[in-house]
Write a structure and sequence with these properties.
This protein is of the alpha/beta class and 208 residues long. The protein has one domain (4-187): 3-Layer(aba) Sandwich (Rossmann fold). It contains 7 helices and 7 strands, in the order H-H-E-H-E-H-E-E-H-E-H-H-E-E. It has helices at residues 9-17, 26-42, 61-67, 80-86, 120-133, 145-151, 166-173; strands spanning 49-53, 72-77, 89-90, 106-112, 134-141, 177-181, 184-187. Strands 3-2-1-4-5-7-6 form a 7-stranded mixed sheet, sandwiched between helices. The longest helix is centred in the N-terminal third of the chain and has 17 residues, at 26-42. It is globular. It starts with 8 loop residues before the first helix and ends in a 21-residue tail after the last strand.
Length: 208
Amino acid sequence: MSDASRFNAAYYRRYYKDRRSRVATPAELRRRAELIGAFCRHHQLKVRSILDAGCGLGLLREPLHAQFPRARYTGLEYSQYLCERLGWEQGSIADWAGQGPRGEPFDLVVCYDVMQYLADRQARAAIANLARLCGTVLHFNVLTRLDWEQNCDRLNTDGAVHIRTGTWYRRELGRAFANAGSCLYLRHGTPVQLWELEGLDRPRRRVP
């Protein structure tokens, strides 16, 4: 991750622009934003501010704007190449000291396919920072060891990353977030009651 030059024009052309090797299509990104929007509407959660951590080309900005037209979008990106061209906030989620509008946490934080570029210590710091930055909903996904071994297309997946288990991520995220499924998490303390089968990996409460 310290080599910022890695995230250059060739990287984004291969993984985001070239139709033969891109990791997501515009239709997939629209559906992802629709999923987030439906989740927030279902739980009657207001989204006035959005942080897209590792926003890349900003391909989720317009789909998210369609779901939350009044929300203020902030794109955070490590790549100096992109920040100079697209005007994103430059920094790493591991130590970015920013905050949401009015000095409050963001209502929605998106962190998708970012954490695998961080070593363990940085990744732990990044997850702790997500807990500080996220006031309500986190949309989070990352390449895990099982995904690398069984699920992904290795020809079109960046393998020069840190591969960790899903258990590692569930443990670290569980300190501050409740797993609501479909890569959606609720910050502990959010006034939303998840029923048992709505959430994942929820600890059982002992019956007296």
